[in-house]
């Protein structure tokens, strides 16, 4: 190689080193790696062509085979392209490495605040300087659970709704869900830390923690994750507000416990109490006749942009209170034939959930289906708090033929739709 050629190669290597100085390891590299592992959604991976020169030996140096392997350096072309792209798009490099077999230099960039990852990737993909632009994606080992809750494999509803995959993006953190129902076992290990408030609007001072229906619904929505016992809620980061407006009538001679009951007075008190709370989601796993007072209260909650989720009545028609009130999201059992138009479907058969006394049991019914929908709504609102009921319905909607079993709403799919809508 001529002296001039050696000079040009050395100059190129120097320029590359200077241009890519921000990409070299910094003291905060460990923090950047931890940030990438914690939330990959704010990072992209970008690659540019990297024509490389081998660093030449000096005259009189050792014979080939007796010298250390010649190393590759970042070429001036790649360095210049990356430096320009960084300036143009305000990118902050987090990590970089060359891939000599592909002739590429790759960099992981953190997005500037407020930047849409999807829009930026479309722009970069159309840039002739860029060979590859993609999200920094997460993968998982198949067969390994992200949770240590032993009954998770028995949670059919959790699996059918894609909740585990959705939890990579959201666990419903700090979204308040009001559950108007019976009481619940507040000391249950899988509710510990999840109940932010509770009120007894039936008979204050009477037992609250022996009621079955309320804890079944609450467990589906927000049972504690990774506490080494029990199950995982659809939105384990949500905050529950429990309003006891229903009770179990005494029926000592009956072969089975009578279903819980409510009335206009207790439900009205509960709805009025929710108006004074910060709950964005109201779960009403109950049903009855049309009721002017309750409908007026519910209409006010809807005007406050609350998301009201109700169970489909046993008649199979969206009628009465609360399912017949316009603006309410009505949910029936997935797998049921010919649900009414506009009614969502979620798992509601043999769903493992919480039971009084720190126990667990299976529950069925549209009440449980509604609880799944409330949990998924919490996952979505944690990412986009301003969602309204109409938009939420669109995100949860599934396609099915009128004569086919209704497919379950899917949390992972709903979050993907939300990501596509978010600018």
TrEMBL record:
UniProt KW keywords: Hydrolase, Protease, Serine protease, Signal
Residues the record marks as active site: 181 (charge relay system), 213 (charge relay system), 367 (charge relay system)
Pfam families (alphabetical): Peptidase_S8
Signal peptide limits: 1-25
Residues annotated as domain Peptidase S8/S53: 172-402
InterPro entries: Peptidase_S8/S53_dom (IPR000209), Peptidase_S8/S53_dom_sf (IPR036852), Peptidase_S8_subtilisin-like (IPR050131), Peptidase_S8_subtilisin-rel (IPR015500), TAT_signal (IPR006311)
Family in the record: Belongs to the peptidase S8 family.
Official protein name in the record: S8 family serine peptidase
Phylogenetic lineage: Bacteria, Pseudomonadati, Pseudomonadota, Betaproteobacteria, Burkholderiales
């Amino acid at each position: 190689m001529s002296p001039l050629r050696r000079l040009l190669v050395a100059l190129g290597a120097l320029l590359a080193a200077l241009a890519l100085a921000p990409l070299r390891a910094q003291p905060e590299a460990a923090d950047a790696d931890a940030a990438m592992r914690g939330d990959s959604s704010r990072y992209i991976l970008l690659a540019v062509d990297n024509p490389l020169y081998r660093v030449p030996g000096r005259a009189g140096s050792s014979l080939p085979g007796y010298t250390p392997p010649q190393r590759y350096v970042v070429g001036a072309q790649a360095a210049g392209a990356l430096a320009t792209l960084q300036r143009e798009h305000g990118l902050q490099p987090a990590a970089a490495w060359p891939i000599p077999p592909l002739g590429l230099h790759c960099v992981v960039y953190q997005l500037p605040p407020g930047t849409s990852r999807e829009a930026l990737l479309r722009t970069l993909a159309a840039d002739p300087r860029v060979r590859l632009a993609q999200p920094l994606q997460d993968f998982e080992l198949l067969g390994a659970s992200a949770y240590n809750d032993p009954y998770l494999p028995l949670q059919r509803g959790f699996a059918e709704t894609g909740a585990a995959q959705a939890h990579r993006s959201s666990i419903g953190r700090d979204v308040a869900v009001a559950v108007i129902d019976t009481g619940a076992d507040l000391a249950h290990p899988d509710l510990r830390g999840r109940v932010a408030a509770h009120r007894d609007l039936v008979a204050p001072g009477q037992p609250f923690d022996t009621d079955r229906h309320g804890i079944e619904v609450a467990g589906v929505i927000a049972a504690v994750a990774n506490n080494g016992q029990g199950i995982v809620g659809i939105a384990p980061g949500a905050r529950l507000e429990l309003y006891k407006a229903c009770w179990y009538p005494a029926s000592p001679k009956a072969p089975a416990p009578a279903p819980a009951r409510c009335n206009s007075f207790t439900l009205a008190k509960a709805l009025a109490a929710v108006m004074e709370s910060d709950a964005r989601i109201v779960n009403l796993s109950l049903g009855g006749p049309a009721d002017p007072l309750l409908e007026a209260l519910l209409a006010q909650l809807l005007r406050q942009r609350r998301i009201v989720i109700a169970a489909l009545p046993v008649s199979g028609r969206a009628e009465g209170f609360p399912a017949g009130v316009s603006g309410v999201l009505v949910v029936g059992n997935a797998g049921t034939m010919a649900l009414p138009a506009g009614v969502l479907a979620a798992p509601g058969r043999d769903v493992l959930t919480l039971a009084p006394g720190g126990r667990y049991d299976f529950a069925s019914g549209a009440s449980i289906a509604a609880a799944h929908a409330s949990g998924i709504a919490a996952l979505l609102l944690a990412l986009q708090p301003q969602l309204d009921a109409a938009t939420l319905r669109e995100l949860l909607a599934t396609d099915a033929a009128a004569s086919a079993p209704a497919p379950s709403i899917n949390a992972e799919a709903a979050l993907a739709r939300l990501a596509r809508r978010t600018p």
